[in-house]
Amino acid sequence: MAGGHRYQLQEALSLDPPTTTHRKTHTSLRIQISESYTPRHQKLDFVAEDLRLREIPRLRNVIAGHYFIHSQSDARRHACMNHINTLLAHAALTPDQETSALIPPIHLATTYERERDNSYPRGYQYARDGNPTRHLLENTLTSLESGFACCTFASGMATCHSILQALKPNAHIIIPEDVYHGLRVLVFDENASIGLRVSTVDMTSVDEVEAALTEETQLIWVETPSNPLLQISDIRAISKIATRAGATLVVDGTWTTPILQRPFELGADLVIHSLTKYMAGHSDVLGGAVVAREESELFHNISRLQQRVGAVMDPFSCWLTLRGLRTLAVRLRAQCDNAEAVAAFLRDQPRIHAVYYPGLEAHPGHDVARAQMKRFGAMVSFEIDGSEQDAIAVAANVRVFRRATSLGGTESLIEHRSSMEGRDTSTSPTLLRLSLGLEYPDDLIHDLAQALENI
Ligand SMILES: Cc1ncc(COP(=O)(O)O)c(C=O)c1O
Q1: Label partner for 1 (CA 20 to 30 A): which of 239, 302, 340, 345?
Q2: Domains of the chain
Q3: Are the CB atoms for 280 and 140 separated by under 8 Å?
């Protein structure tokens, strides 16, 4: 850990603070950085004022995002970025110390040179252990979630797998019965190497979660809204159960991003993302991330696995994700607008017998969603009043929507979900899932209208 970083941090924290509360905390703060941590995992020991500091999310962002801070003026700018949209628009804009280039470079090096004294002066030695572009993305995600630290992986599923592998032996975990299909396959078909005991529950029922607890429950997995039924689970209520049981609460934030839902503020311990979706946002990157709210043994194990196994995100994908993040707020706003318009249209169609979108007042999870989400997201599922062949015909008839899996890109997608999930699916054969993109809403609505007319 270079001494320079210590100086920059102290500079950042000695800003003129905008309120008296902040001023008090700033002036009496002292920081020690443990030398044994890699740059990403610098341990910030708040010798004084620890608790008060942690109560100020914006200041935590400054600290978590300290890789953006090279000077007093950078620190001042960062301290003025109060809203997540502003943080996103400037994500990882770190003027290069030598060239002043605003956009960070992509670091492709796999190996780093030692100093004469045998040290690695910048903390980097080998790409599996650490890469500056990856760390920039990890620090950015930490900052966006107001967390402690982040590890990125080569895919969302590699992230899930690492979390499950990092649990203690013979762990019992609780997952939703309608969990993302890939995770279900992982925990049931690939479980031999992980050795978990798994309970599936209706995660919309807090009582069912509580009843499924055992002495060995190490982890509760929540995905809300769920895939593909958009069921809503009450994160705060489940977090209380997890805390009482000493279990880790993981929330999959792929469909919501840190803009629509703030799992740490609702009591989650870990947030995961498939970065492949909204965060990168252009259907051209595969990646995943786990962000931890606090330091923990589990996160330490995940981080160790990341470095030892090396299922890491490659530098170009990290860089593309950082680029995608800068437009996330505007993309998601347009995508949520489109989802609301399309859900309202579908609700009134005679050939459709159910629309699953938590923004509709008739949705059973509407009130919980309203309380814990900023908006209701950009995914909509619906069921055709007809046969499986009718549903497949609608997907075949569309002209603007693309008939493909995945979600979160600029282009709207339609998918006959049970065809994708295959033989073990519990998804209704008449269900179609939409990922709303950035098109003009009337084009999407007309497209669905003509596709429905032609069945
Ligand atoms: C909610 C959710 N979690 C995790 C994943 C897995 O992510 P990836 O495809 O990046 O492995 C997906 C993929 O669709 C998803 O929808």
Answers
A1: 302
A2: 3-82 (no CATH), 132-325 (3.40.640.10), 328-453 (3.90.1150.10)
A3: no
Per-residue pLDDT, 268: 98
Check 128, 197, 347, 374 and give the catalytic one.
Answer: 128
* pLDDT tens-digit series, residues 303-318: 999 999 999 999 999 9
Verify whether residue 52 is a known catalytic residue: no
Q: Which residues have C-beta atoms less than 6 Å from ligand 1?
A: 155-157, 180, 182, 223, 227, 252, 254-255, 274, 276, 286, 288
pLDDT in tens, 170-219: 899 999 999 999 999 999 998 877 889 999 999 999 999 999 999 999 99
Q: Which atom of ligand 1 is least distant from the CA of 275? A: 10
Whole-angstrom distance, CA of residue 396 vs CA of residue 238: 40
Among 159, 190, 274, say which to mutate for ligand 1: greatest number of ligand atoms within 8 Å of CB. 274
Q: Chain-centre distance of CA 202, in angstroms?
A: 22
Residue identifier of the C-alpha nearest atom 10 of ligand 1? 156
* Distance in angstroms (rounded) separating the CA atoms of residues 147 and 149: 6
> For residues 415 and 396, what is the distance between their CA atoms, to the nearest angstrom?
10
- Cα(178) to centroid of ligand 1, in Å? 14
- Cβ neighbors of 60 (< 8 A, separation 6 or more) are 53, 54, 146
- Measured between alpha carbons, how far is residue 116 from residues 101, 111, 120, 332 in Å? 30, 16, 9, 50
Examine the residue annotation and report whether 128 is marked as an active-site residue of this protein. yes
pLDDT score of 128: 94
Please tell me the predicted confidence (pLDDT) of residue 75.
Answer: 63
